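Record 1 of the preview.
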Amino acid sequence: MKRIFDPVHHFIELTPAEARLLDTPVMQRLRRLRQLGLAYLAFPSAEHSRFTHALGALAMGTRAFDGLVATGRSFFRDDADVAYQRRLVRAALVLHDIGHGPFSHACEAVLGRRHEDRTRELLALPETRAQLDALEVETADVLDLILGDGEARYPHLRELVSGPNLDADRMDYLLRDAYFTGVQSGRYDAGQLVASLRLIERDGTPVVGIDARGVVALESFVLARYMMFASVYFHHTTRMFERILQDVLRELWPDPHALDPIDEFLAWDDFRVLNELRDRRSPSAIALRERKRIYKLAAEFNAEHDLSTFEARDRELRAIYGSENVWADEQSQVLHRLPLVAGDGRPTIWVQTPEGVVDARQASDLIGKITGTAYWRKLFVKRGATPLIKN
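->
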């Protein structure tokens, strides 16, 4: 057994086969991908990697799975079934981020390839498949848990890996991102939340929900997600430099298909992108290298019930400065981090109460009020832009 010390979860234990999986190139590359991308330009300590997050997700997912087994043993056929599912969920959580490119979403916006598609390719590599064979788990099962599409063989494990709400991915990154940014409002009662997880049968299928006694912990989880979105994930400095980064990546990769071959894709990471900027003299390259703010925040909308006020201000600024000098930022790329997003009448999280199973929005007034569509927007104007008309 290998033990790795982590500042968030303390000792994380790995089997020899899991340790060998960590040593593969696709996993070691995650050490060179920052978990929060350019957030370190706003929060200087946010230098943690996707590698450490993968370990943290494994730790949280294992705690959650073991708790589900302890309280819902009847949902598992036998000890062999429990052992397989435990190996499977741990492998999927370790590998869930391998498809990310340099600076994640900025890379996807430039290259037009989703990280989920890359994950599919990377899991098909002979070395990755060999490591999964050594773990005695099916590659197809791992892929299903990470991508969350198609028919689910283990729907309850999919919830723990790819969400949309009670996944170990979010459970770890909230604690980890809060720790490294210093944003205390991003913390939540992880121990109580995990202890409250339950397997609940809905329409003949087991789903992950919580016991009613864990509603307060769920509320702390929802609030933490909300606060981290407001304080970190949608921070104006980070978002501004992500926009600048996209211009830089287009300079580096003028051909959007340049990284289509998987070997070429794996050769790029955050470090290589930043190293390529050393001798580039474009305004965007200089701005990113030297943290020069090309844009200034002109307006922010964090409590809008629709887009009318935002759209009116957007038109006004474009009329004053010209559309080429105004940038309207949306939250679409980070919308999945918002609390308990649900649509089309779908439930958010099932809660087991003495009166029966209900939607979390019914079990908690707070969750009911905070859940829903957010029309958060920011408007930026290029610094030094000359007004075309007086404001």
